[in-house]
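Shall we go through a protein fold together, starting from nothing but its sequence? Please make up or recall a protein chain and show it to me in full. Go ahead whenever you are ready, and we will take it from there.
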Amino acid sequence: MTFTVAGSRILITGAAMGMGKLYAQRAVAEGAAAVILWDINKAALSETTKELLSFAGSQQKIVPMLVDIAERTAIEKAAAKVRDDLGGVDVIINNAGVVRGTFFWDHENERDTEFIMKINALAPMFITHEFLSGMIDAERPARIVNIASAAGTLANPKMSVYASSKWALIGWSDSVRLELSQQHFDHVQVTTVCPSYIATGMFEGVKGPLMTPIMQPDYVVNRVWKAMIQGKPMLMLPWTVHLSKVLKGILPLRWFDAIAGKVFGVYNTMDHFTGRK
């Protein structure tokens, strides 16, 4: 079945700014019937909603919702309202994410480790669970896009908890893809996205590894959007993410560490990380 954005109901997390806002703009531009914006930043959410309404069509719905996706009960309440008001969704873009760029022993359990795992790993699972049965039963083309990270394929100093959250996300996301295929629910396609660093401010101060430039948001959004429409199972950006995965699979760990650390400089990319202020 052919998927089209036009007429679809699209839910985006972390939609008030950065990549989430770009996905929302793209959804409106391509004629989505409803664009549901979930974010915790009230001021940014209000501003983004105004911007989207300024060029949305008269029949398009822009639905801003202040949702703390770190809380499962908040997700459940917000999802119930979406189902009541719109009947469900056709597309989920699990975009929201957080990072703490420091050594593991400097993470605080609640503020850092637990929070990162809630946002990056658990929230996409809870959100998708709220809508997946409806997507399956509707028997119409649907898409789930899970924004993971190249960090989920490669260990890196000062990213221990972030990397673990993205490893979890990748494993879950691709497993759901296989489950849907195995049960012949092929109208619901899952795309797992594993990008390297993107110039959104989230990773301010990092240095891209050798042959791995920091990517521009518009470029990444275009690639993700195309992959979503095609139902592509996995998107890794740029090509060096593929290379590192292959090398890690075939080389002894000490050899790989030497190449990744000393040749490509991967293990020092976070040395001067400051993050978004």
Observations:
- Residues 85 and 204 are 39 Å apart (CA to CA).
- The beta strands are 9-13, 34-39, 61-66, 91-94, 142-147, 188-195, 234-237.
